[in-house]
Amino acid sequence: MDTPTSKKLDIIIPAFRGHSQSFLMVLDGISEENALKRIEGRTNHIIWMAGNFLDMRYALGNVLGLNEEFEYKDFFFQGKALDESFTYPSLQQLKEDFHKISPLVYQKLLAATDEELEKAFPMGMNIDFFPENILNFVGMCIGREDYLCGQIGLMRRILGYEGMKYDFDKNLNY
User: Fold this and answer.
1) Does an H or E element contain 96, and which?
2) Mean of the per-residue pLDDT values of the chain
3) pTM for this model (two decimals)
4) pLDDT tens across 48-68, in order?
5) Sign of the C-alpha dihedral, residues 169, 150, 152, 50?
6) Sign of dihedral through CA atoms 78, 103, 108, 22?
7) Which of 21, 35, 99, 108 has the smallest CB count inside 10 Å?
8) Per-residue pLDDT, 80
């Protein structure tokens, strides 16, 4: 396993890599048609969930100093509500973007210093037990990725797909 510069990220690095694996495994085999289905018009579709996952990766990268812009930001920025009038990107387009941004963010996580992680990062939460800094933003992004993979996993089952297989790709190093 890669060793981060900051010991504060010892738990984040395996989580990030695990989420990269989970993201690809939970989407495995989902058709483009099914990726746009909603349940009783009440749920987000898988495309929205995958796009929100990527929005988290881009946001994390930006906070860590990357200047990459998510091509589909207007659809997903900060959990923007699903809008059925939009023509969303395909699952394939989102997977390609995932492979573009994820290794860059991973390298930024490995290089982050304690000083960088402790920098203030206002999120407007105003919760006394939650310091608004880059480290806690990183944690929030990791938590959101977990949540979204779980949501996609549930959608898999509802749409009649088998549960996610845990066929880890040992060559995926981000």
Assistant:
1) helix 91-111
2) 96
3) 0.94
4) 999 999 999 999 999 999 999
5) negative
6) positive
7) 99
8) 84
Classify residue 43 by its DSSP letter. S
Instruction: Show the tokens assigned to 135.
Output: 């480290």
| Calpha distance 22→77 (Å, rounded) | 22
Q: Compute φ and ψ for 49, nearest 5 degrees.
A: -65, -45
Question: Which pLDDT value is given to residue 79?
Answer: 78
Note every long-range contact of 154-163, with CB atoms under 8 Å and residues 24 or more positions apart, other chains counting: 155/39, 155/43, 155/45, 155/46, 155/49, 156/26, 156/30, 158/39, 159/30, 159/34, 159/37, 161/29, 161/30, 161/34, 162/29
For 69-124, the pLDDT digits (tens) are 999 999 998 878 899 999 999 999 999 999 999 999 999 999 999 999 999 999 98
Greatest distance between any 2 Cα atoms in the chain: 47
Contact indicator for 61, 101 with CB cutoff of 8 Å = yes
Give yes or no for a contact between 29 and 155, defined as CB atoms under 8 angstroms apart: no
As a whole number of angstroms, the distance between CA 170 and CA 94 comes to: 22
SS (H, E, C) 100-124: HHHHHHHHHHHHCCHHHHCCECCCC
